[in-house]
Every structure is written in C-alpha cells, then in structure tokens.
Amino acid sequence: MSNNLAGALGLSQSAEDYLEAVLVLGQSGRMVRVTDLAERLTVSKPSVVAALASLEEKSLVRHEHYGGVELTAAGKSVAEEVYRRHRLLHEFLRDVLGVPDKIAAQDACRMEHVLSPETVNQLVRLVGFFRTHNADDAILLHELQKCLEKGQCSNVKVKTETGNGKANHGGRMKKLSDLKVGVRAIVKGLKGDHTIRRRLMDMGLVPGVEVKVSKVAPLGDPIDIEVKGYHLSLRKDEAQVVLVEEIE
C-alpha cells in the first residue's frame, strides 16, 4: 500500500530519504529538527527546509518554522515502507550474500528506491528462510554460502552414513550441548546469529560432519569435542546453536 501511495504521489528518491530520516530520527522519542536532518542526510539546512516545504504540500509532514518536524499518517505509511525495504535489503546483502556491513548499507540505500513490491515480498520470504530454516535446510544454507564466498558451486551431496554407524534420521535432533561424553553425532544445522554461525562453520562445524563429545567441564562449560581428528573447545552457548543427530 505504501509503495502505491509513494508512486501515486510521484515521490522522488530524495523525498523518500527525507521521510525515512524523519521516521528513524523520531524513534529516539525526541523532536526532529532541521539540523538533525541536515546532519543525517549530509545536506544544507536550506535544502532541508525546501524539501520539507514540498513534503508539507503533499500532506506528508508537518513542520513549524523554527520548530520540529513530524510525519502525518500518510507520511508515516510511506516512511515505514521505505525503512522496511532499506532494512530488508541491508540484511539480505549482509547476512545472506555475505557483503561487508558498510558496503551492504551503502548498496541498500541505492537499491531501496527502485524495487517493486513483488520483488520486496520475495526478498522477505528469502530472508525469512535463512532466519528460520530447519536443520535439514542448513546443508543447503552452507552450500549456498560456500558458493557465494568461494565460488565453489556444486550439487549438494548429503552423507547418510559416516564412520561405523548411521545417522539416526528417525530420531529427534538435539543441541550439541545436550550430548553426553563419548556420544558421536552428525551436525545437521546451525541456528542463531549469523556471525556465530559463520565462525563455527569456519571452525569445521558444518552440516554433514561427524562430531564426538570428548569432555565436559564440571559446570558444563566449556565443552570439548572432536571434529575431523582434532579437538575444539566450545562455550556452552556456542554448542547450543549446533543441531545434531546422534549416530546409532
């Protein structure tokens, strides 16, 4: 709805930026002033005043001379949609494609004004998949990240057997932190924060690999595990994001 409203009003990229800036600055709870907008958008105060006058003519903002700036109901509707697109694109570029945060933020600013509602909705679904994927989907997640980061793009092959046993596919998955000493398991996925998942994958905890708990500290932290013949010491909160299936 907001995208249609912005289109019907013929808003420019600059106008959308102003509305988004008023929304974001207003989230602090304090009055938004011309100076605040000038600093955030790196423009002159006269430019801000002129832009606000244009937006006020369209009934998108209210601005009293030498006073604060606030969004009207229509202005807030447009601003929230622009902000949603911006945040979504930033997360997609950073968390899914692995683009460095600063570059992702800059590119999101450029992209947010040109996407159709249909494309935005599909990106919402894609980002949602990577946020809430189940353990079986994590293998696909890892393969996609490897393809994007290293150019190693190939068909996904999931091992169903390892060592002298088979993964108990009919069993219930559990957290690595819940395994008892001596138990072997297959990593099925990683949940939680993107940064933590990436670091654990870099340590070798990728979907399909076999792990074994070799030692647990008296208070349950840290946890010593074996992966590919070497030992890793994980904090309990790290082990809790790794989902595994025990090997029979």
Automatic annotation (TrEMBL):
Localization of this protein: Cytoplasm
Ranges where the HTH dtxR-type domain occurs: 11-72
One GO molecular function term of this record is: transition metal ion binding
State the GO CC annotations.
Answer: cytoplasm
Which UniProt keywords are present, listed alphabetically? Answer: DNA-binding, Iron, Transcription, Transcription regulation
User: Is the Cell wall biogenesis/degradation keyword given for this protein?
Assistant: no
Q: How does it assemble?
A: Homodimer.
Q: Which protein family is it in?
A: Belongs to the DtxR/MntR family.
Q: Mind telling me what this protein is named?
A: HTH dtxR-type domain-containing protein
**Species in which this protein is naturally found:** candidate division WOR-3 bacterium JGI_Cruoil_03_51_56
Question: Could you read off the lineage of the organism from its UniProt record?
Answer: Bacteria, Bacteria division WOR-3
